[in-house]
């Protein structure tokens, strides 16, 4: 640049060489600060021997940005026109059903905080609450449960020579609290979802009927059918064959709950398999135990009769 040139001459030269419009140019000059349009008649010598930083957008970039902006505006206009021409969709959600679902449900879900990873138990309880079949059954029968919580795996467990019996669920005060045995005895696993859901159906029936009479079982089986019919998600899958579940009408030991467990012949452990490696039913175990008791009674009677017939016996 000639020594008599001005800063305006400089920015015009920048526009010609770098294609950055004058109005878009800003010059950062040490001690002089930021110079921007209009640049005036400041002599170019004021910038001599100084580092000049140019801030600006080229004409090509401006054109590209303008084209992109116009394209975006056209797209928005097209979408707006499409929305105006599309028939308005009306919500199919039934407000009465929504009100019933908020009323006939589990008001509070509570895992046991002292057990490992309570958030997993809470997710299990939330799945039960959101189950389409359970929700439909609770609306149909107008069931409202104050608290749905999990049962400690060590609670309500009894062992005898016939095996180990575990209560899978409890209903307190006809729906005030329902407890479900979610975890396995090792605390680190969870029982089959569909078994626990059937347990919940059983406990919901106790909201109406306490004893296990014909009215109770009719309602229980009705709820199970309703849950299965409305379960469009078909949720839950078996995780193994270690759990024994017997939907029998003859079970009386449950204190308002559903009884299940693992049983083994000839021992009091929790294995689900006999010495021969085959799973046996609870009814078979009970029959076997009854036979053993009869044999013991006959043997005791025979021993007593033998002692009384022996001279000198007492």
From TrEMBL:
<feature type="domain" description="WLM">
    <location>
        <begin position="97"/>
        <end position="295"/>
    </location>
</feature>
<protein>
    <recommendedName>
        <fullName>WLM domain-containing protein</fullName>
    </recommendedName>
</protein>
<dbReference type="GO" id="GO:0070628">
    <property type="term" value="F:proteasome binding"/>
</dbReference>
<feature type="compositionally biased region" description="Basic and acidic residues">
    <location>
        <begin position="281"/>
        <end position="294"/>
    </location>
</feature>
<dbReference type="InterPro" id="IPR013536">
    <property type="entry name" value="WLM_dom"/>
</dbReference>
<feature type="region of interest" description="Disordered">
    <location>
        <begin position="265"/>
        <end position="314"/>
    </location>
</feature>
<feature type="compositionally biased region" description="Low complexity">
    <location>
        <begin position="271"/>
        <end position="280"/>
    </location>
</feature>
<dbReference type="Pfam" id="PF08325">
    <property type="entry name" value="WLM"/>
</dbReference>
């Amino acid at each position: 640049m000639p020594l008599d040139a001005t800063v305006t001459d400089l920015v015009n030269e920048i526009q010609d060489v770098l294609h950055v419009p004058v109005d878009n140019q800003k010059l950062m000059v040490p001690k002089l600060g930021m110079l921007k349009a209009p640049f005036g008649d400041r002599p170019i010598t004021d910038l001599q021997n100084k580092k000049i930083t140019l801030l600006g957008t080229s004409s090509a970039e401006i054109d590209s940005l303008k084209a992109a902006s116009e394209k975006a505006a056209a797209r928005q206009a097209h979408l707006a026109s499409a929305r105006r021409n599309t028939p308005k969709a009306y919500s199919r959600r039934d407000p009465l059903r929504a009100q019933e679902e908020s009323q006939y449900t589990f008001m509070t879900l509570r895992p046991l905080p002292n057990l490992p990873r309570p958030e997993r138990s809470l997710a299990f309880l939330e799945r039960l609450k959101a189950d389409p079949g359970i929700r439909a059954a609770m609306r149909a029968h107008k069931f409202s449960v104050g608290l749905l919580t999990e049962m400690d795996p060590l609670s309500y467990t009894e062992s005898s020579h016939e095996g180990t019996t575990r209560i899978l669920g409890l209903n307190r005060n006809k729906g005030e609290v329902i407890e479900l045995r979610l975890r396995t005895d090792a605390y680190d696993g969870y029982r089959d979802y569909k078994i626990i859901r059937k347990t919940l159906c059983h406990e919901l029936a106790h909201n109406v009927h306490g004893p296990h009479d014909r009215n109770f079982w009719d309602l229980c089986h009705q709820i199970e059918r309703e849950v299965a019919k409305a379960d469009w998600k078909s949720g839950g899958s078996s995780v193994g064959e270690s759990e024994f579940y017997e939907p029998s009408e003859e079970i009386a030991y449950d204190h308002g709950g559903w009884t299940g467990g693992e049983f083994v012949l000839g021992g009091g452990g929790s294995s689900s398999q006999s010495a021969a490696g085959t799973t046996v039913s609870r009814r078979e175990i009970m029959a076997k135990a009854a036979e053993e008791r009869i044999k013991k009674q006959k043997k005791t009677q025979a021993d007593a009769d033998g002692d009384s017939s022996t001279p000198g016996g007492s």
